[in-house]
Amino acid sequence: MTAAAPARLAAARAMSEAALQDHVRALCDGLGLAVQHVHDPRRSWLPGWPDLTVIGSRVIYRELKSEQGTVSAEQRDVGQRLTDAGQDWAVWRPAQLLSGEIGRQLASITGHQIALPLWKDQSA
């Protein structure tokens, strides 16, 4: 475990789903990706539809959760249906943002390379 790991873990645990969404949207905007957010999935025709649909060289579907958030049965069902249909569905959490994994996945559908990881230890 690196010296930055405890600070990164604390930051991930403190980040809300809304804050994660804001960071992901900023990454998408910066990379020129089209992104659609389902504002109120409870009113969707298909309950459990992923939070984000991101369009680049291919389409990915992502459910956003805080570190403590749980994926509902409806979300798992829709995710499985998308996966069974050959689509790229996954759950993203703050730890994946701070490790650079989300940035790498987004960059992979643009052809761009970005400097990663995005996390800098603020205590150093």
Written account of the structure:
The protein is an alpha+beta fold and 124 residues long. The chain has five helices and four strands, in the order ααβββαβαα. It has a four-stranded mixed beta sheet with strand order 1-2-3-4, with helices on both faces. The longest helix has 15 residues, at 17-31. The chain is globular, with a radius of gyration of 15 Å. 20% of the residues are buried.
Structure class: alpha+beta
Mean pLDDT: 87
The share of residues in helices is 40-55%
Unreliable residue runs: 120-124
What is the terminal-to-terminal distance?
Answer: 16 Å
Overall number of strands: 4
Q: In order across it, which strands form the biggest sheet?
A: 1-2-3-4
Give the SSE order as H and E letters. Answer: HHEEEHEHH
Please state the CA-atom Rg, rounded to the nearest Å. 15 Å
The biggest sheet, with number of strands, parallel, antiparallel or mixed sense and barrel status, is: 4 strands, mixed
- Beta-strand percentage range: 15-25%
Number of helices: 5
Q: Which word captures the global form?
A: globular
Brief synopsis:
Helix content is 41%, strand content 15%. With 124 residues, it is α+β, with helices and mostly antiparallel strands.
Question: How is the secondary structure organized here?
Answer:
Blueprint: H1 5-14, H2 17-31, E1 34-37, E2 52-55, E3 59-64, H3 73-84, E4 88-92, H4 94-99, H5 101-108
Parallel strand pairs: 3-4
Antiparallel strand pairs: 1-2, 2-3
Helix pairs in contact: 2-5
